[in-house]
Amino acid sequence: MSLILGIESSCDETSAAIVENGSHVRSNVVATQIARHAVFGGVVPELAAREHLIALQPVLKAALCEAGVGLQDLSAIAVTNGPGLMPALLVGLNYAKGLAAAHRLPLIPTNHFIAHIYASFLDHDLQILKQPETYPILALVVSGGHSSLLLINEQGEARQIGCTIDDAAGEALDKAAKLLNLGYPGGPIMQKTAEKGNPEAFHFPRPLTGTAGKAVPPEHKYNFSFSGIKTALLYHVKKYEGELSDSFIADTAASYQEAIVDVLTRKAVAAAREFGARTLVLCGGVACNQPLRDRLQKLCPAESALRIAPPKYCTDNAAMVAGLAWHSLAQANDALGADAFARLPMITSVPFIGNRRGTA
Ligand code: KG4
Ligand code: ZN
């Protein structure tokens, strides 16, 4: 049996988790900094770093305690080393390095973006990853920093077939909530506000979908663009005279969310069809969005098995980091020199498929 400690600090969540054999989550403790950043209307990187510094030790203790294990029981320590906010990443990475060195444990630097995809396999039998009928996998990764479609084959080779050319979906929701004075983070608040509104009350653009009579350039077939929706919202609010009424705000939130859900679903379903995806994964913080989950469930092609993790594994957490790292355990070596990286590199493979298994 292998127990891996995961540490996550790429943005505004400090998390530690213990995961057994790559899938069984023994504990997953998340300390959120939302209240600290809310007053600024967004994440302040240096403040995030300071908060991680304070939270890491108690979060680690809680994760070990909840799992009923000690550091001596661990096989390795996994840590997110990118992409993310550099000051925030460095705190978690250096903390993990210190812990690994002091306890003579292998350190496994882990990619946060791939970990989001892996989250949909947590608490499940990993046999599914060995079955040919699972492939290809199409993953729609939607978070505060990413909106991407990644195609993964049976060998673990990956190809990004689309991504946002400007803002991410979560960013578009966060900025809209700020503009409507609803607070931070925007995604959950927009969803709640939208529940009382009519999604057809107003029309917001669906960029790069060809719906406005504008042909989509072939290179943008599976790309996203959310900055135009945001600008449309700005004009929509400016046009409204006087104080914004509750019903206007609810209808606006519902219509805006609808535009984002429509674009994301439309492209994911079309890509799943074109590439014959046998598995469609929806992941990342925006995957918590209930209307998005429902819409994809409804429109997912019959040939694709839909996998959406429970919300606790969609937003940033360390369980997805520890789970993913198990697949690299057999190759883990001295990674104490590992660096952090802010931006997503080109993904050409994922470590959780193929014969790169960890040792159970
Ligand atoms: O994956 P995540 O926790 O952090 C990043 O890696 O970015 O995603 C955070 C994003 C934020 O933009 C937040 O507004 C969005 O996920 N989010 C949601 C919901 N819950 C979180 N968006 C829509 N609906 C939700 N219920
Ligand atoms: Zn994330």
Question: How do you describe this structure in short?
Answer:
The chain has 11 helices and 10 strands.
SSE sequence, one letter per element: EEEHHEHEHEEEHHHHEHEHH
- Mean pLDDT rating: 95
What's the name of the CATH homologous superfamily of the largest domain? ATPase, nucleotide binding domain
* Helical coverage, percent range: 25-40%
* Bound molecule kinds, no repeats: 5'-O-[(R)-(carboxyoxy)(hydroxy)phosphoryl]adenosine, zinc ion
CATH topology of the largest domain: Nucleotidyltransferase, domain 5
Tell me about the biggest sheet? 5 strands, mixed
Look at the helices and sheets and give the structural class. alpha/beta
The main sheet orders its strands as 3-2-1-4-5
Low-confidence stretches: 356-360
Q: How far apart lie the N and C ends?
A: 5 Å
Question: Overview of this structure, please?
Answer:
- The chain has two domains: 3-121 and 313-346, 2-Layer Sandwich (Nucleotidyltransferase, domain 5), CATH 3.30.420; 131-308, ATPase, nucleotide binding domain (Nucleotidyltransferase, domain 5).
- The protein has 360 residues and is of the alpha/beta class.
- It has eleven helices and ten strands.
- The longest helix is centred in the C-terminal third of the chain and has 29 residues, at 246-274.
- Strand 2 and strand 3 form a beta hairpin.
- It is globular.
- The strands form two sheets. A five-stranded mixed beta sheet has the order 3-2-1-4-5, with helices on both faces.
- Helix 5 (169-179) packs parallel to helix 7 (227-239) and helix 6 (186-194) packs across helix 8 (246-274).
- Bound molecules: 5'-O-[(R)-(carboxyoxy)(hydroxy)phosphoryl]adenosine (KG4) and zinc ion.
- The site of zinc ion has 6 residues, from helix 4.
